Amino acid sequence: MVHRNAADRRERAILQRLRDQLGQRVYPVHRLDRQTSGCLLFATDPARVAPLHAALAAGQKTYLALVRGHWAHPPEVTVDAPLKADNGAMKEARSVVRLLATSRDPRCALVEIRPETGRFHQVRRHLQRLSHPVLGDANHGDTRVNRAWRQQHGLPRLALHCASLSLTPPDGPPLDVTCPLFEDLHGLFRRMPWWLDARSAHPALGAAPLPLGVEAPA
Fold it and tell me: Do residues 37 and 182 lie in contact, with contact meaning Cβ atoms separated by under 8 Å?
């Protein structure tokens, strides 16, 4: 799903499946980082991509992330920390992080993140800034910890999921899109000691998981 090489192949596979299902071309309004699951918004008219993208930027995205370590912050924290863009310029970046559940054995936490700006890898970089990187993050996490989680707990991939999108299109009513967890992360989360606490804090976690979706060819 989304930046370069394997991610581009994955996006093309998704686009092709949607074309086959709908019988017409579709155009991505936004993207997800590679290995991130969840909501993706598409337009059937290329002229609608820009206004929908602007509406989404003014709306709200909500992510779920399994992060390293027992939570060491207040139950809700705002990260207001500029991030460097590709051109080297520092850009304003702001995210709101809410704790759903945490444990000391294993040392991890499930959090909900609402990015208020849209910088590259913003969710992952802001969680790293809190010293709670997303488990499975090869770029902003801890390789040793990620390996241990794969071996001991069956961590399947980057533990990041776009759970919902909310926006108001310029030519229509408000739009709310949700996506349940996929089977791989759902299975991992259910094995954690905090699962029932997390479901109480975020009832949408109780939805039936989705089967794994389109995978790009190797």
Answer: yes
Annotated catalytic residues are 33
Among residues 200, 207, 193, 196, which one has the least CA distance to residue 163? 207
Q: Take residue 79 and report the two structure tokens written for it.
A: 């990260």
| Residue-range domains of the chain with CATH | 59-206 (3.30.2350.10)
The token pair at 168 is 């108001």
* Per-residue tokens: 197: 């606490």
d(CA 136, CA 42) in angstroms, rounded, equals: 27
* Among the listed residues 164, 163, 165, 172, the one whose alpha carbon sits nearest the alpha carbon of residue 51: 172
Q: Which residues in the chain show pLDDT less than 50?
A: 1-4, 214-218
In three state form, how does the secondary structure of the chain look? CCCCCHHHHHHHHHHHHHHHHHCCCCEECCCCCCCCEECCCEECCHHHHHHHHHHHHHCEEEEEEEEECCCCCCCEEEEECCEECCCCCEECCEEEEEEEEEEECCEEEEEEEEECCCCCCHHHHHHHHCCCCECCCCCCCCHHHHHHHHHHHCCCCCCEEEEEEEECCCCCCCEEEECCCEHHHHHHHHCCCCHHHHHHHCHHHHCCCECCCCCCCC
Asked if residue 82 has a cis previous peptide bond (ω within 30° of 0), the answer is no
